[in-house]
Amino acid sequence: MAEKGSDLSYDFCCNLCEEDCVNKEAMFFCQQCSKGLCDVCIGLHRQFYKKHVAYGREEMDKWPVFTKLFEGLKFCELHSDHPIEMFCEDHSKLCCSMCLFHDHRHCVKLVLITEKSQAVHGERELINISSSITGVQLKLETAMNDTQECLKKLQDSYDKACDEIKTLRQKINDILDKLERKTTHDLDTLLHTVKQSLQSDTDTCLKAINSLKKIGDAMNNIEKGPKDLSFIVYQKAFEMDSQAEKVLNELAVNRSPSVVFNKHPCIEQILSDLSTLGNIECAEKQTDNDKNIILECKKKYLHHIRITSDKETCYIRGICELSGGYILILDYSNNSVKLLDIQFKVIAHADLIGSPMDMCTISPTEVAVTIEESKTNMIVQFLNVKDRQIYIGRTLDFKHKCHGIAFFKNTLFITSLTALYQYTMDGQLVKKIYEDTAGFQTVYKCAVSPDGSRLYIINYSHDNLLTLSTDGTVLSSLKNPAFHNPRGVHVIETGQLLVCGDTNNVVQVDGEGGVVTLATKINGLDRPDSVYYSAHTGRLIVGYNSTSVLVINTK
């Protein structure tokens, strides 16, 4: 028996039970009462209304509501005042006379609805389609529930982002308040020091004035005093006069002291260069299906990247895509970074202070580059691209080697050839994530998954591709002849993993640990050191020791 408040939904409910707030399915319909009746209520109904005829579900064509439902189905959805008369087998469409006239006059396979009804009615097709509709309905309801849950999570993520923005703003306010207090304290300290100096000068002047007045009075009355004191008075007056002159020359007032505030020019410049407090992005959940989609390489092109100032053959160590479709490439041989437009033409370049090793995107207009300035000094150089120009930004100094670099949500991951470190954006060490000292280049380059849950390391010395959790736990180690001495690793924003190296190829690692070769030496590759895939343009870009970059279309 159905209970009150039941969530079950029926096509036709028992009207008598509804009056008692009970939800039960109607199994009969009385035309005289115009009410639906359940199995229980039909017994009472027959006792009180013996002459009323109640029709069961086997005679639902006599149910008025059911008849109304069927009446609505008889009419065309496009032309609601025209009944459906034909079926076009060429287009699998139900047609009224207006549909026939406008859209199907030239169709060959037009069949009357009555003929189709005879072929379908009572056949297995109705049962099958009914089952299919039920299944699809359940899937849609599940999808609707998932969508509602997604909307809730979306709102929760929005609220969280708002809280993070407010927290960041409060932190900035706290930092500015601290800077203001410290600067004001320095101002007060300086004022106090200068005031003390001026007060000391005042005391010195007053003391000198009193001494000079006293000796002056003695000189005015020297004739009345003992004559043997005249020389003593003269000498003391001479000394006091000289000392007073010296005091006058040393007085702070002669230097006209004042307090001046000289602001740090970088503070205002940094804040004015920012358009927002951070990047707003839609972080969609990555599915395993996305990871396993294999790129299909089609047309291949070589784009010339050598410029007149290059002294050596270009050696591309890093590739990044910025907003507007611009591409940045690191030229190791010429210690430079080059900006390419969407046609892969070099439109700007900038010289670096050392040999660039790797590069990662920080924002749509900013990248971070690891640079070997000298054998003992390794830095991370930040570069900004604005108005088709490259601007050198701030630097971070490190005590260990800086080779590979990756970025995820205000965190830098840097390899030292034998270890992987995690740093904040201001260069503060968070932790050493992983270390392998069993070779010279065991932690060569790194990459991070789109959701930040996985880190990938290529072990150049031992031909391995390692997958780590963020705490440094090795989740898998893949060794394959297809990437002997791997040099470059890249994770596409849709999750696919690419590797290139001394085997003169670019391979994609599938979800099962297998590899698929995307480009080889036949395409002109010579020990590729960098690979990048643009999900926006469908282009695979490969950098190596050449005057060109290889670009492969996959769409």
From TrEMBL:
UniProt keyword annotation of Protein biosynthesis present: no
Record carries keyword Coiled coil: yes
Keywords assigned: Coiled coil, Metal-binding, Zinc, Zinc-finger
GO molecular function: zinc ion binding
Coiled coil, from the record: 151-182
UniProt-listed InterPro entries: 6-blade_b-propeller_TolB-like, TRIM45/56/19-like, Znf_B-box
Protein name in the entry: B box-type domain-containing protein
